[in-house]
Backbone:
């Protein structure tokens, strides 16, 4: 054991030392670092085993030195030769050795103590990490998030789960854990980029590699370079995942997603998880690499200067974005039905379409400077009283999104419903409905009808001007195909957002 440990220290120092110097002064690409750091961390273990194990055959054993006896020493002394007539000792008499052979050297206790303590500490650390993994996981059934994931290649085996984690994390070989407020942190494009980053970790089996290499680095603590190499490998793995995610979602979108996640998630990586945002210093390097065009060649100092300047400017954007624009107004968006109340069913389900369109409309209105209140942001059951409570009198408008159904499958098109003019907000609601009707006509042509009076509770009892939009027929194949198309929903949402903006600021 002592021989193996000393050999391992020699081999690992000769391997890891030059590699760390190379990474410090002339860092190669992330792909090269990823492969070389894994090999450098594991190879010394194997080479030490091969070189320190004694051979069983093929090597001549050194001759054993003869035992020195009293008779031999007496015979070698010239003054001690016996006279010719002296009796000679019988060859059968036992001869007592003067010097005994040296006993075998026992194994050095410090080698066993160092190795055993490292293994015990690594097992304790990773055992506690496994025990503290979130046990309560709920599958993500939100169609908007699931659709974002399924658009990525190779994601059919990946499972999304809600869990008490600080940020999006990859776990095992097919699980991505998400915190519940992730949709408040990230708009859909940035959320898709974060999912792509974690999907890349799963494709590379990074959670398993992280556990294995981290265990080795902790167990063999007698080599302090192991921790530095393990940290460098984690950084290279993050950069490799960034490259894959940026290729499928866009470099700037991923950079924005990393910065948004870093504001909410802690920077210290967990032993068994692969969070999207790691240490702040390395996050600066990653975002700088994403924001810098790969084909532009600049000196290293200029890269650092521009990267630091870019991160500093991006860090100041959130407070400026909050303090600078004056909101045009507040709008309540009600995604009809939800949870156990599926609404109308046909070629599409009403609760799913209304939620997808409500989220898109929320993002478009937010970009126009409108404050948005959502009655629901996920697939949940709400009563009419819950929806009315979330329609605050401080809002200026209410839009309730729904679908129509008809026994005649040829019936299609959108409709706008408002409360009767005798209602408290009747006249203002009619003006809003007319603006929405114009926007819908620009998208659907003559397949729009209204404004039509409706006695729906969400309209009659609304404290603010309100309109109920039926954006299509779930029972019509053409309408369902359009509403299932993200490009059409985006076009429809932008037209509605412009109509709302004109209603708030005529």
Residues:
């Amino acid at each position: 054991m002592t021989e193996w440990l000393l050999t391992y220290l020699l081999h690992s120092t000769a391997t890891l030392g030059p590699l760390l110097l190379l990474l410090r002064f002339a860092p190669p690409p992330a792909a090269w670092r990823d492969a070389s750091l894994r090999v450098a961390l594991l190879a010394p273990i194997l080479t030490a085993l091969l070189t320190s194990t004694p051979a069983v055959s093929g090597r001549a054993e050194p001759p054993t030195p003869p035992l020195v006896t009293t008779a031999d020493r007496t015979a070698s002394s010239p003054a001690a030769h016996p006279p010719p007539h002296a009796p000679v000792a019988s060859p059968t008499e036992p001869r007592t050795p003067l010097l005994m052979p040296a006993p075998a050297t026992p194994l050095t206790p410090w080698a066993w103590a160092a190795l055993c303590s490292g293994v015990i500490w690594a097992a304790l650390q990773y055992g506690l990490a496994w025990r503290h993994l979130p046990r309560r996981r709920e599958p993500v059934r939100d169609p908007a998030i699931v659709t974002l994931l399924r658009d990525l290649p190779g994601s059919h085996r990946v499972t999304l789960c809600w869990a008490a984690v600080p940020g999006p994390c990859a776990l095992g070989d097919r699980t991505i854990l998400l915190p519940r407020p992730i949709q408040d942190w990230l708009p859909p494009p940035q959320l898709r980029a974060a999912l792509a980053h974690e999907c890349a970790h799963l494709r590379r089996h990074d959670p398993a590699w992280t556990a294995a290499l981290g265990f080795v680095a902790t167990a063999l603590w007698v080599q302090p370079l192991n921790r530095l190499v393990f940290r460098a490998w984690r950084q290279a793995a993050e950069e490799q995942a960034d490259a894959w995610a940026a290729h499928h979602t866009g470099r700037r979108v991923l950079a924005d997603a990393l910065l948004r996640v870093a504001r909410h998630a802690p920077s210290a990586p967990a032993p068994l998880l692969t969070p999207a945002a790691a240490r702040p210093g390395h996050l600066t390097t990653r975002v700088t690499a994403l924001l810098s065009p790969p084909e532009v060649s600049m000196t290293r100092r200029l890269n650092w200067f521009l990267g630091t300047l870019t991160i500093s400017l991006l860090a100041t954007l959130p407070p400026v974005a909050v303090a600078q624009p004056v909101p045009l107004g507040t709008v309540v968006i009600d995604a009809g039905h939800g949870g156990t109340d599926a609404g109308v069913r046909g070629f599409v389900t009403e609760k799913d379409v209304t939620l997808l369109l409500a989220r898109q409309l929320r993002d478009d209105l937010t970009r126009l400077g409108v404050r948005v209140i959502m009655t629901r942001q996920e697939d949940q059951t709400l009563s009419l009283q819950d929806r009315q409570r979330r329609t605050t009198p401080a809002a200026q408008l209410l839009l309730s999104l729904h679908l129509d159904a008809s026994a005649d499958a040829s019936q299609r098109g959108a409709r706008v419903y408002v409360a009767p003019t005798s209602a408290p907000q009747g006249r203002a609601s009619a003006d809003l409905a007319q603006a929405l009707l114009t926007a819908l006509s620009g998208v659907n042509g003559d397949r729009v009808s209204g404004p039509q009076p409706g006695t729906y509770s969400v309209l009659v009892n609304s404290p603010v001007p309100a309109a109920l939009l039926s954006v299509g027929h779930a029972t019509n194949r053409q309408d369902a195909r359009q509403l299932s198309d993200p490009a059409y929903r985006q076009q429809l949402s932008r037209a509605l957002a412009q109509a709302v903006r004109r209603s708030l600021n005529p």
Notes: Residues 54-107, 295-324 have pLDDT under 50 and may be disordered. The CA atoms of residues 49 and 410 lie 77 Å apart.
